[in-house]
Write a structure and sequence with these properties.
Blueprint: E1 2-7, E2 10-13, E3 18-26, E4 32-39, E5 46-51, E6 58-60, E7 68-73, E8 78-83, E9 92-100, E10 116-117, E11 121-126
Parallel strand pairs: 2-11
Antiparallel strand pairs: 1-3, 3-8, 4-5, 4-9, 5-6, 7-8, 9-10, 9-11
């Protein structure tokens, strides 16, 4: 089992940047594919980005492609979401998630597939 804790959220102006972190504790984090999701009030949870166990494969949601990037440091048991060119519509609670996988190069896209979730961190973007 793994515990996940997000940090790095806050208030930023449109066009600005934030970097979110997701620190994993418990079982070795490099046994997991990781993902970032977000949920705005009244909306469904949305896939933002995912990364494979070995960090070599990443995928991003259509709404953030070219602006957000995901990467991981397995030595630090941490996954990051770099968010650039933020827009007001990016405002949401951002969650990281973990899925134990044997395969090293699979990215998981669907929220229902993930087994572990953090508590979330709020991102607010002012126009």
């Amino acid at each position: 089992q793994v515990q996940l804790e997000e940090s790095g959220g806050g208030l930023v102006q449109a066009g600005g940047s934030l970097r979110l972190s997701c620190a994993a504790s418990g079982r070795t984090s490099n046994a997991y594919a990781m993902g970032w999701f977000r949920q705005a009030p009244g909306k469904e949870r949305e896939f933002v980005a995912g990364i494979s166990r070995n960090g070599r494969i990443t995928k991003s949601g259509d709404s953030v492609k070219g602006r957000f990037g995901i990467f991981r440091d397995n030595a630090k048991n941490t996954v990051y979401l770099q968010m650039n060119s933020l827009k007001p519509e990016d405002a949401a609670v951002y969650y990281c998630a973990a899925k134990p996988l044997g395969a090293p190069d699979i990215v998981v896209l669907t929220p229902n597939t993930y087994d572990y979730w953090g508590q979330g961190t709020q991102v607010t973007v002012s126009s």
